[in-house]
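tool_call: predict_structure(chain=1)
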Amino acid sequence: MKAAKEVTGQSCNRVVLLFIPVGFATAESAYAEALGQAPGTDMLLNHEARASVLFITPFYYQVCTQVHGFAVNSKTFVAAAENPSAARAELDGWRRKWDEEKATVVAPAQASR
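tool_result:
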């Protein structure tokens, strides 16, 4: 992973005075923000996603989704690999993991609606 750049993205949901929404957190927007830190990349390897909650009664409620990983250009990653088939399989594994994970990361924010 010599060409990979370590990146972090965040997306937040905020509610002020218990009913005024400000923003809408999505795992996809946190992922996109992370990729935006490394122009020319199209996916994250070794990524972790998590949600955090901050609640200050009754004035402020916040749920943030953070995504941390290593941004790569998938075509360059495969081309530079000693074993392109193994590199493609690794990329497919990380894509599947993201597809499974992104639906559950923002669950605390969505469950309250």
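agent: The first strand starts at residue 5 and ends at 16. Proceeding to next step.
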